[in-house]
């Protein structure tokens, strides 16, 4: 196994771990109810299984300086015991590796003799990556600082592929948007796909009104309808002397099928006298799941499917209506792979009301 190239010494890696652990603690503390059974970016693991894996890894690494063989043991937890188990295992791991000379030795691992600093580096990558996994799976925002994520990405890039891209560790790097956060770049470098697991947030919406044109069109006719409807709505807004306050928006009163009922228009800074095809539409307030689809419009069905699966895993039932805010289009971004669409899907009722 090839030693990594990094400017971080053992003290620097321990510093990264000590910064990462409290945020993972917060993420685990934020999981409740049905979200323990939600799917995660880790194949074949639900949220509880992922926390068990994280705790098992911490116990494994905590045991290495004591002379254990470094094999990953099985950990079985209940949701009620998960946070305490994480705290105990992370405290043991950090304190043992901070002990005199622990990181300066080499250890006999199942894959061969391995320097202690390399093992510490593995632990840093493992904690931040699984922190990202937990956040995406449970609808929380990972609060790792950009500096922590950037330093960890630098650390990851110091390992060669033969070292980290092996079964049971990390997969091949995934392309990511140029404007992706440092944490998303780290996750993508280590085999996660931020586009396949877009961040989902549960938000409390205030009711708002939009000026819209209603249409009932075949799904293949949406692009043409939107072009006409947005132009018509903009002209009515201009005549009223008020301002557009958000991106183009399409409200779907029910799930689109081959024939789509849709209201296309804009939110505004004031009332607009409706006439002809232009009228007011009230967007509902209350709890909603929100995510951002990145890519062409014809690929949005997969994002809706993942969002619906995420809600089901969290014990949430989607309402019949949803809307899309078009944050970019062909006029502002010629590459469809970079188009961004915010999807807002109100919740019908909540089996798990706590966040």
How would you concisely characterize the structure shown here?
By secondary structure, the chain is of the alpha+beta class.
Structure description:
By secondary structure, the chain is an alpha+beta fold. About 40% of the residues lie in helices and about 20% in strands. It has helices at about 10-30, 45-65, 80-95, 115-140, 145-155, 160-165, 180-190, 220-240, 300-315, and strands at about 105-110, 110-115, 200-205, 210-220, 250, 260-265, 280-285, 285-295, 315-320, 320-325, 340-350. Strands 3, 4, 5, 6, 7, 8, 9, 10 and 11 form a nine-stranded antiparallel sheet that branches. Strands 1-2 form a two-stranded antiparallel ribbon. β5 and β6 form a beta hairpin. α1 (about 10-30) runs antiparallel to α3 (about 80-95) and α1 packs parallel to α4 (about 115-140). The longest helix is centred in the middle third of the chain and has 23 residues, at about 115-140. It is elongated and about 80 Å long. The two termini are about 45 Å apart.
